[in-house]
Every structure is written in C-alpha cells, then in structure tokens.
Amino acid sequence: MRVETIVVPDPGPGEALVKVQACGVCHTDLHYKQGGINDDFPFLLGHEAAGVVEAVGEGVTEIAPGDFVILNWRAVCGQCRACLRGRPQYCFATHNARQKMTLADGGRELTPALGIGAFAEKTLVAAGQCTKVDPAVSPAVAGLLGCGVMAGIGAAINTGGVGRGDSVAVIGCGGVGDAAIVGARLAGAARIIAVDIDGRKLEKAREMGATHTVNSRETDPVAAVRELTGGFGADVVIEAVGRPETYEQAFYARDLAGTVVLVGVPTPEMKLELPLLDVFGRGGALKSSWYGDCLPSRDFPMLVDLHLQGRIDLGAFVTETIGLDDVEKAFARMHEGDVLRSVVLL
Ligand code: APR
Ligand code: ZN
Ligand code: ZN
C-alpha cells in the first residue's frame, strides 16, 4: 500500500464528489490488495465511508453540497427486473461513477474498491451511492454502516427475518457476526447464541448482546446450540465466517423449518456437501445475504437514528481510529483478530 496523489474529476451527470471524513478498514480491502477479487490494479482501497458532499453533477437532485452521507456500494438502477418488481435490494445492475479517478503520476486509472475508493480525502461516486443521514452521528460510526455493520444487522433483520421471541445463533463473531447479534437483539430475539473459536471474540459478543456463548474449538457447536434451545436448534442461524464447515454447523444447528443465513463470503475453491435428504427433510430456508439485503435509503437513516437514540450502540464497533498511513498496520491487526474495526479519519 502506498499513499499517492490522485486526480479526482469534477462530477459528471449523475455523479457526486464526496469529502471523506472517515473510512473503516474491511477484509474486502485486504482481499483486493491480495488480488483475491480481480487483477485490475492499481486499486484505490477503502469503502466503509462517510463524509460530506462537496459537489454534484448534472441532474442530481436527491443530494446537495453540504449533505452528510454514508456511501453504499449498491446504488440501485430502478430499471432492472428486480427493481421493477419492487425488490430494489436485489438490484442486478447496481452502478458506480462513470468517470475514473487516476494516479497523478502517470495518469493510470484506479479501480476503486467496491466502486467507492475512500481511503482518500475526496472520492467520486454515483449520486445513488450517497445516502443522507443525521449529521449528529460521528463519521467513524456512520461509515461502518456502509458495509460490514449493515451486512450483519441486515443478515438478521432483513434476510433472516428475526422476530420477537426467536432463538438465533451466530457463527463467527467478528464485525459482521457482532452486527448480526445487534440486529437480532434489536428485532427482539429471546436467545442469542454466539459461536466462535476465539474466547476474546465471545467476550465482545456478550457485550454486544449475546445471551449465551459457545467456544467451538472446545465444544461441538451443533450439540451446544441444540442444548441451549430445548434440544431443537435455533430458529435462525447466521453464518458469518464463510467456510463449508461452519456452514454445515449452521445447517444442523437450526431447528426444523428454521432459516440459515450465509453472510460470510466464501472463496471460489470451497465446496459444500450435504445429504440432499437432510436439505429436504429439515425444511425451512437456506438464504444468502447480499450486503444484508439492505436498501440504503431505508436502512441507513433508520439505524443512525436508533444509534442516536441509544437503542443500538454502533460505537462499539470502532476499536481504534487511525491515520491514512496506518492502513497496512490495521490489516496486520485484523489478521491477528485484535480489532472489530480500525477506522481511518481524514
Ligand atoms: N468457527 C467459528 N468462528 C470462526 C471460525 C470457525 N471455524 N473461523 C473463524 N472464526 C471467527 C473468527 O474468530 C472471527 O471472530 O470468525 C470471525 C470472523 O471475523 P472477522 O475476521 O473479523 O471478519 P468479519 O469482518 O466479521 O467478516 C466475516 O463476512 O462479509 C464477510 O468477507 C467477510 O467472510 C467474511 C465474513
Ligand atoms: Zn467491507
Ligand atoms: Zn435494478
């Protein structure tokens, strides 16, 4: 990683220039850096961001200079078959800014991470990637809603449809899993079982709202979840690791007719093998959660408001705030499992 001078074009039609105030360091940035997403180097990393709109291009009416916004990486098109059927959270044609940001030295085009690129003082995005929220929230907290925290909360409340009185198990309690715990609690889950192989993560999960914890390095998590749910399994199990073995645990830790939500992102070589008879016989739903199946315009302002009212504590996800030069160190800390989120302040 290097800090470089870049050229950010003035916003064209449908685009917005955003002065970034804070941007979280996410695993996906590391995946980009390692070439795990694509080979379109050089990347402009950073995508969990909040800031202030500085300028907008022609035809942009939904936001204006001075607005405090959270950036999202799924600006919906309004015209694809999902949007037209009233399911914009599944939009199959999300978009980014058309113009490219470039390196000042040599002019090479940059590929912004998830179409955002916010480890930068300013970034160019599509206007639809900006969601206006209450500026009373701190930018470091707000930015996290742009990716991991929204993915986790949405996995529980949108994809999993957790309701009052439900039992919920969350496998993998990093930033995403902990956010799923916050979401489950918000939705009124009666029992929230956190599963992880790291005792430190389980302690944190309890602070976030888990009512029970299971260390799956020491205990069989399927048996433990069943034991904690009257012998049956949880109504909703959220897999926030993205591995076949944890998916299988999620599958069997769920009650009959329950729901499994996969929000952890697997890698291409991973394969899942399950008895098809169990898939049929156990019924219910096996779902994937894209970005928490969120609709930024609906979910970001609502979650910011609940945070400002003290009904959820999104501040607990910010482990440390750092400078732009410290992202490499933050990747190392992430690898060690020391942090939920390091957030770059600009
Ligand atoms: N069983 C249980 N927990 C596990 C296991 C396992 N086999 N392997 C790892 N974990 C735990 C880790 O201890 C850690 O607490 O899963 C958690 C993963 O957390 P992070 O590494 O902080 O990742 P996070 O940002 O939460 O993202 C989780 O969601 O969006 C995706 O790409 C993201 O796949 C990733 C997942
Ligand atoms: Zn992310
Ligand atoms: Zn669409």
TrEMBL record:
Ranges of residues in domain Enoyl reductase (ER): 1-344
KW Ligase (keyword) present: no
Keyword set, alphabetical order: Metal-binding, Oxidoreductase, Zinc
Coiled coil: none
Keyword Aminoacyl-tRNA synthetase in annotation: no
SMART domains, A to Z: PKS_ER
InterPro entries named in the record: ADH-like_C, ADH-like_N, ADH_Zn_CS, ER, GroES-like_sf, MycoS_dep_FDH, NAD(P)-bd_dom_sf
CDD domains reported for this sequence: Zn_ADH_class_III (cd08279)
Pfam hit, one: ADH_zinc_N
Essential cofactor(s): Zn(2+)
MF terms (GO), sorted A to Z: oxidoreductase activity; zinc ion binding
Highest taxon, organism lineage: Bacteria
Similarity comment text for this entry: Belongs to the zinc-containing alcohol dehydrogenase family.
Protein's recorded name: Oxidoreductase
